[in-house]
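Reopening this one. Same input as before:
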Amino acid sequence: MSRLVVVSNRVANLRSANHAGGLAVGLADTLKQREGIWFGWNGAADGVTGGEAQVERVGRAEQVTVPLSREDIANYYLGYANSVLWPLFHYRLDLVDYRPAFFESYQRVNETFARQLAPLLKADDLVWVHDYHLIPLARCLRKLGCRQRIGFFLHIPFPPPDILVASPNHAELVDALLDYDVVGFQTHTDAGNLKAYLGERLSAVQLGDTRFQVGGRNVTIDRFPIGIDASGFAAMTRQADDEVQIDLMRRRVLGRRQIIGVDRLDYSKGLPERLKAFDRLMAQHPELEKSVTYLQVAPPTREEVGAYGDIRAELEALVGAINGRLADFNWTPIRYIHRSVDRSKLAPLMRGSQVGFVTPLRDGMNLVAKEYVAAQDPEDPGVLVLSRFAGAAEEMDEALLVNPYDIDEMARSLHRALTMPLAERRQRHAALLEQVLRHDSKAWLDAFLSALAHRR
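Same output, byte for byte:
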């Protein structure tokens, strides 16, 4: 069996991947089973780009991490990746902060990664590159003579042509994607957006549903819906610590239901809109006061980027205003946590919440939606309120799908979720759980690696 070489901006610690998200667990387990390498930045902020790699063997796999300079962290990572590509790919042209130095650093880091990775590769390796930080990597490897099968998977949305062309480097980005053998997306919409660009701007020849030929290069473009380890996450719900058990018992005694949201603090997640929808719910249904709480877990991310400071300030102002107006001495309507919470706590918190509130303005997939479904008690399940602009909406029709820009619609859906009859909740949950189990993390891994291994 060919080795698997995973390349990502950050490397999950293979020794403690079980404490990370389900994606890291799945990739780590696959590497350990079939032998391979996980290659990427070491996460430190004081290195020299192109400096000595650190290699650690964990079972049959190797973890290879490389340093980056402060300048490249500022320009490649915080700059081009997260101040240009992230907002661009999430349809937020108003937040794109383009500077030529950013793209120069982005190219330089990818070229450096390629030079460091190429000597580690064997002829029959399968190379799997992840996410928007490393779009040019296959091109850089090809220039060094690498002929291995190389696949790319994008974990965030891919925009339609009329948005993508707002980037001065859109042609270079798409041309670089054509050096991969397989390009994978989360949804039909995302795959269709790249296909549309190829047809409109590059006169690509379509050889089948997923095969395209452009300038003598053949590429497979397809949808590979990402999933979770549903059974593993469900098992966590039965291991609640004392703090969580006390919280669940207190709400049960008081007869209070909980709406839960779990998201990184990011402007793509629609968090201010959610708070406004909860506020609207309380205004329209005052009988719910003291009987419903909203728990929002929003750990920090990319705080060095200006837009993230703005969203934090807006969110904290809204929480304070709503709580100040509605709270009583024994009822705080909104509980807001701005730090990371271990998955072992989140799982039982999700199980004990009657509504999962997952309404990003735009998202590649959103695994929290799937985790909420997996966490529920099938005999008395909660209800998922889901943005129709989350990639998961393609698979999860039985959720209450909402427009995250429509505050009134979200408030109505929250009320419907809180008052939904048990029979309907069970029917919706059973259908959602079947989808989550079918499209789990193993199915995603197997589908992508099979497509790459059998690419001709």
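So the earlier flakiness isn't reproducible anymore. For the record, The radius of gyration is 23 Å.
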